[in-house]
Write a structure and sequence with these properties.
Elements lengths: L1 E3 L13 H7 L4 E3 L6 H13 L11 E3 L4 H10 L5 E3 L2
Parallel strand pairs: 1-2, 3-4
């Protein structure tokens, strides 16, 4: 089982039948940003975006100023936004 994304602080997994994981050699793992290697993967993402094949804009909920960072974190934790981008 792979946990994808950052859960809300109150999110819990229901009872997991551990014998099934033990008997089948399963594992529980989290995935942080897809577990990418930025030096390898970011250039690929940029190329795909520039080709119009990676709709990065759909992942950005709002653009904010540097003074709005605390508010952006609060919105992210409450689930109001997916991602905020800081414009300097």
């Amino acid at each position: 089982m792979v946990l994808v994304g950052v859960p809300t602080p109150d999110l819990q997994a229901p009872a997991i039948p551990l014998i099934d994981y033990f008997g089948r050699g399963g594992a529980l793992k989290s995935s942080w940003y897809g577990d990418c290697l930025p030096s390898r993967d970011f250039p690929t993402y940029v190329d795909l975006y520039l080709q119009g094949r990676f709709p990065l804009d759909k992942f950005v909920t709002e653009e904010i100023g540097i003074d709005d960072i605390e508010s952006a974190f609060e919105k992210m934790h409450s689930g109001e936004v997916l991602r905020s981008v800081v414009i300097l």
